[in-house]
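Here is one chain, start to finish.
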Amino acid sequence: MGIIKNLNKSFDHRIRLGIMSVLMVNEYADFKTLKDLLDATDGNLASHIKALEKEEYIKVEKQFIARKPNTRYSATTLGTVAFKKHIEALENLINKQ
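Its structure:
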C-alpha cells in the first residue's frame, strides 16, 4: 500500500468527496443545495449521503420550514477528522511525485 495507505475509501467517489468538501466550508447544507452544487440525481446523492451517514461522517437533521420538509446535513467531528486526514494523504501523494 505504501504511499496510498492513508487514503480513505469512503471518499473515493467524487460525490462523497464533494459532499464533504461542501460541509467542511459550510456549517450545514440542505439536500437541494448539495444536489445543485454537485450536479447529482436525487437517488445518486441519497445513496452517497447514506454511505457517509453510515460511517458517522455526517449528521442528518430533518425539519420543517414554512410547512415544507427540509433535510440538512453537517459534518461530524469524526467526519471532519477523517476528511482532513484524507486530504492530507492526497497532498502527500501529490508532493511525492
